[in-house]
Amino acid sequence: MRGLDRHVPVVLICAALLGSAGCATSAEPGGSRTVTVTRPAPATPSGSSPTPAATTPGPAPTHRQSRLPGNCTSSLPVASVENAIGRDVPGNTSFVVGAAEADIDRLGYLNCRYGLPGGPAARTATPAIEIGVSLYGSAAAAAKRIPVTVDDFENHGAGESPTTVGALPATVLTGGEGDGYDVPTLVLASGQRTVAVSIVPRSGADVTHELVAVAALALKHTAG
Known about the structure:
By secondary structure, the protein is of the alpha+beta class. It has one domain (16-40, 61-221): Protein Transport Mog1p, Chain A (3-Layer(aba) Sandwich), CATH 3.40.1000. 19% of the residues lie in helices and 30% in strands.
């Protein structure tokens, strides 16, 4: 995902409790390593589609949050994303858990990718839906990341439009050029957290509505 979390050192996570179908690791610049756990998305019974859930973001934590709870499998499973947008997301799901990055006061990071092909193609494929949640040491540090991200997208040709997720201001970025910038993306800050959601648009779908619904889901389920 571009912008908020483009350079993310990550920690190894391949715990048995995930019940994962597979776990792949790869080296990254600077000696960090990326671990992506991939599993098939749950099937929806033939002839039925999820019903959109009335998702509203929970209140920002009033205490200092020191970590993000869980991972994509436990906090943001594909079924909950499907319920939020009212449609199936076929394909595989993978996630990356990021480590602290002191120079921007980031305490941790979670990246969830849904609707990926199977096999080696998943490594370079654009996910149908991607959620990035970062936790910072302070609300001020989190807020600083939003204009950085907006500028980054605008430098790649994207336009911005305001929206809201619950009562929170958010920015939708569309029309960019280049890998990661050409997918509609919503960014916002809530307390110590930033959320970035990207969704590949589908014919006839209101992508802004889907972006808002998934961002609200992410906020609700990553509060510590």
